[in-house]
Design goal:
Bound molecules: calcium ion
Order of helices and strands: EEEHEEEEEEHEEEEH
Structural class: mainly beta
Number of domains: 2
Helix content: 10-25%
Strand order of the largest sheet: 4-5-6-11-8
Oligomer: single chain
Radius of gyration: 21 Å
């Protein structure tokens, strides 16, 4: 961890730039810094969800919290340097709930789904895991209503090309108008979702990172995103598995603790 003092604000407050595991954080010295450093040391480590570069696709996220749930939007930038072109055209992605060490879990917090619509038209509501395709209500990325995976608009989305798990995602997979199952049971306790497919019209992704997954979980739930993405050139390219879970090295935690103590001591001396 490295730290640099940036500015001296009003009232003697100091803005620090702290680089930790490649993530640059800015924070004011004082009680907010203590809180932030405690957070870094293993409590509520959402801020460690660092940008990940791999081959061609640069993965990033933004998130909001409302009504007890966290909503994450996962995006990919195809920057034109890895032989995959400049667009985002397909994905094979798993989202998995994990514990604080990044290991898969099958209990506790689950992915939330938008179960407000009957996509298969049999009178039983279905989870909208494609954000609106084919006939469900369109959901914008950032929607707190539920988890879905999609590239481009629902109209362009041709996925899943060959699969999603679990199946079925709709209540009438044979299309006879008679419900086969109630997906709210299966999708009401889900810790792993797999979606694969391609778009008909690839999204330009070299200037603005394009969203491909909207993830809604109970606040504080950790998850991982893994799989591969397809640009307009080349084949599917694996992305580095990344997670919002805290997996700092023990030595780093000790360094943060020491840093926090010394910074707070310095703060007291200058107060
Ligand atoms: Ca249905
Ligand atoms: Ca049926």
């Amino acid at each position: 961890m490295t730290k640099n003092r940036l500015t001296r604000g009003r009232g003697g407050s100091t803005l620090w730039r702290i680089t930790y595991l490649g993530e640059e954080l800015k924070m004011k010295a004082g009680k907010n810094m203590k809180k932030a450093l405690l957070s870094l040391a293993g409590i509520g480590l959402v801020s460690l969800f660092s940008t990940t570069a791999n081959a061609a696709f640069v993965i990033s996220e933004t998130h909001t919290t409302a009504s007890g749930n966290d909503t994450y939007v996962i995006r990919a930038l195809n920057n034109g340097t890895g032989g995959t072109g400049t667009k985002l055209n397909g994905m094979t992605i798993n989202v998995q709930t994990v514990n604080s060490s990044g290991q898969p879990i099958s209990t506790g917090g689950v992915f939330k789904f938008d179960m407000a619509g009957d996509i298969s038209g049999d009178g039983v509501n279905d989870p909208n895991i494609f954000g609106g395709s084919p006939t469900g209500a369109t959901r914008a990325f950032g929607s707190a209503l539920g988890t879905f995976g999609r590239i481009g608009t629902p109209a362009n989305w041709s996925g899943p090309a060959s699969g999603q798990q679990p199946q079925p995602y709709d209540s009438d997979p044979d299309g006879d108008g008679i419900p086969n199952s109630d997906p709210s049971v299966l999708y009401g306790n889900l810790h792993l979702l797999h979606i694969e497919g391609v778009t008909l019209g690839p999204a330009d992704a070299n200037v603005t990172a394009q969203p491909f997954f909207n993830i809604v979980v109970p606040s504080g739930t950790f998850f991982s995103v893994s799989g591969s993405l397809l640009g307009d050139l080349g084949d599917f390219t694996p992305i580095t598995t990344f997670t919002n879970a805290a997996v700092p090295e023990p030595g780093s935690i000790a360094m943060i603790g020491l840093g926090a103590l010394s910074l707070m001591a310095a703060r007291r001396r200058t107060a």
